[in-house]
Amino acid sequence: MKIGIVSDTHGNMGAVEAVAEAASDVEIWLHAGDFVEDARYLEELSDTGVVKVAGNGDWPRTEAPLETVVEIAGHKIFLTHGHTYGVNHGTVQLAEAARAAGCDIAVYGHTHRVDYEEGEICVLNPGSASRPRDEMRSSFMTAELLPGKAPQVKIYRMAD
User: Fold this and answer.
1) 33-44 confidence digits (pLDDT tens)
2) Which of 10, 14, 85, 160 is the most exposed place for a label (fewest CB within 10 A)?
3) Which of 1, 2, 4 is nearest to 107 (CA)?
4) Count of the separate structural domains present in the chain
5) How far apart are alpha carbons 108 and 81 in whole angstroms?
6) Beta-carbon neighbour count of residue 148 at 10 Å?
């Protein structure tokens, strides 16, 4: 199953539209926060489900959870924005929370920088679809998930 992973769209509807168009073949999206309203718009555009969590920029305007666990294609994914796990200083706490929840994949945002860490817990950050901090182009990811196999991750960098 092909999933899309996006975060930190920050109200940039053009960025949401570009992401939806670039990966129109995903079967479900994960939105790792900032902003939940953008995740709802992505759901409308893509005509597929979007699992969403709140980020620090969503508070206090949303009822979305700060984290959730979703099962897709034999994988358990821990989805969070990451700001409550100190991700600006590393992903150890995040990976431990994912492990404690019985997950093999952790997805987060917040840093606006792409991160792809393979290991017992595969850690993924799609960067920011609207305000990148790691290079000039915005980003998102897709992952092909098959039971018993490591995710096949693709990082997309959007043109200006």
Assistant:
1) 999 999 999 999
2) 160
3) 4
4) 1
5) 5
6) 7
Identify the pLDDT of residue 159.
Answer: 78
Q: Is the pLDDT of residue 160 over 70?
A: no
Residue 22: which CATH number?
3.60.21.10
**Which phi and psi angles does 16 have, rounded to 5°?**
-65, -45
Does the pLDDT at position 58 exceed 70?
yes
Q: Report CA-CA distances (Å) from 8 to 74, 75, 132.
A: 27, 24, 9
Q: How many CB atoms lie within 10 A of CB 109?
A: 33
Mean predicted confidence (pLDDT) in 116-137: 95
Of 137, 138, 136, nearest in space to 109 by CA: 138
Total residues belonging to the chain: 160
pLDDT at 4: 98
Average pLDDT over residues 7-33: 97
Residue 90: partners with Cβ closer than 8 Å, 6 or more residues away: none
